[in-house]
Amino acid sequence: MSDDLHTPDPRQHILPVYRPPEEVFVEGQGVYLYTDDGRRYLDFIAGIAVTALGHAHPALVDALRDQAGKLWHTSNMFRVEGQEQLADKICRDTFADRVFFTNSGTEAVECAIKTARKYHWAKGNPERTGIITFTGAFHGRSMAAINAGGNPKYLEGFGPPLPGFVHLEWGDHDALKAAAADPTAAAIFVEPVQGEGGVRAMPEHCLKGLRELCDAHGLLLIFDEVQCGIGRTGKLWAYQWADGVEPDILCAAKGIGGGFPFGACLMTEACAGPMQPGSHGSTYGGNPLAMAVGNAVWDIISDEAFLAEVRRVAGTLAQGLKSLADTHSDKVEGVTGKGLLTGLKLKADPKNLQGLCREEGLLTGVAGNNVLRLAPPLIITEADVREAVGTLDNALAMWQPG
User: Fold this and answer.
1) For position 302, what pLDDT does the model report?
2) pTM over cut 0.85
3) Which entry of 224, 260, 262, 338 is annotated as an active-site residue?
4) Are residues 343 and 265 in the same domain?
5) How confident is the model at residue 1, as a pLDDT?
6) Domain presence at residue 135
7) What is the pLDDT of residue 54?
């Protein structure tokens, strides 16, 4: 009998909702990950846009180590100084007047939805509960978040759709105008750059149009910048490419912790007013460990000189990807995304190409509409870009679309 039959599956007790490859990463340094056998991989997906400052960044390691030796958790029954410091920085540097700290992007989304509905309830309009979203959206995995996204694949098997969400086709302006005029509408909820939906950037004039539409009908404008925010497009927030546009509520996570799990829901004072004690909460949200790392991340990424370098290197990457699209025009439709949330839109399913890249030592992601997704650490250099483009070139040459 084959020995294979007696070899236990190392993931036999893990809920089988993921299908990871065989590589086991045991160490990360900067833009590289290392497996247990010492092989090095250039990380151009960064834990899905999470490790924004790369792996084992000294400032983040020092902040976490220092805090870990002092205090881990008290809950929000008590003041957390790190929360107060980080909230002050965020409100100093953004549109926001108030911040609620969470453990994840999904929780930031939940806070945003609750805040939007409570805002209208407090104004005497409890019927205004409708959250307008768009095809291709991804807002997380909770029940409310999957209903906000509306992807049938993520809704299947989880009961009837929740009421209060309106899903529109991306780019259908007539349907959007009609939905915004509905007296039950509460907010427009959108990712300025979709991640899961195919690394698709909303045009800047459309972001301006959303703000104007919300103002005209008394709706709140909510931006989901869980993936595209925190410097990923070369500005602190992706929406800032549209001059004069500001949201009422913004959801952040992923890069805001540089690899330590936490998120935040930013909002204006008008939105925050109805959210009084008892209306929302979190046991772990804003814990001292997360806040120590978050303060270190914010101090680095919010610096304009850092963001300018992100924009410069992103331009180099865009040029490299465009050259690949030209060279492999039989397989590549074009380049998509914005800044360092980008990718190649392919003419076939990218999963096999992703595997070839990994075999060649480059880690990438995939997204809807046949996109090979790239979301590298924001600290990549032009040398890293050349390495990644060279590897992609080799992988594309080998790739035989099915």
Assistant:
1) 98
2) yes
3) 224
4) no
5) 40
6) yes
7) 98
Spot the catalytic one: 100, 165, 254, 262: 254
Q: For residue 40, what are its two tokens? A: 């090095």
Q: Which residue among 301, 335, 360 closes a domain?
A: 301
* Other residues' Cβ atoms within 10 Å of the Cβ of residue 261: 16
Q: What is the CA radius of gyration of the chain?
A: 21
Based on the domain organization, do 244 and 318 belong to the same domain?
Answer: no
Whether 372 maps to a domain, the answer reads: yes
Q: Which of 301, 325, 348 is the last residue of a domain?
A: 301
- Identify the CA nearest to 138 among candidates 154, 156, 159: 154
- Does residue 230 contact residue 236 with C-beta atoms inside 8 Å? yes
Decide if 245 contacts 213 (C-beta within 8 A).
no
25 in active site = no
Closest residue by Cα to residue 154 from 114, 190, 197, 186: 197
What CATH number is given to the structural domain containing 376? 3.90.1150.10
In the annotation, is 254 catalytic?
A: yes
Q: Is 117 helix (H, G, I), strand (E, B) or coil?
A: helix
392 belongs to a structural domain: yes
- Select which of 95, 138, 189, 262 is catalytic: 138
Give me the pLDDT at residue 369, please. Answer: 85
Residues 258 and 311 in one domain: no
Active site residue 224: yes
Same domain, 317 and 292: no
Q: Per-10-residue mean pLDDT for the chain, 402 residues long?
A: 66 95 97 96 98 98 98 98 98 98 98 98 98 96 95 94 95 96 98 95 97 98 98 98 98 98 98 97 97 98 98 98 98 98 97 98 96 98 98 98 84
The domain in which residue 183 lies consists of 59-301
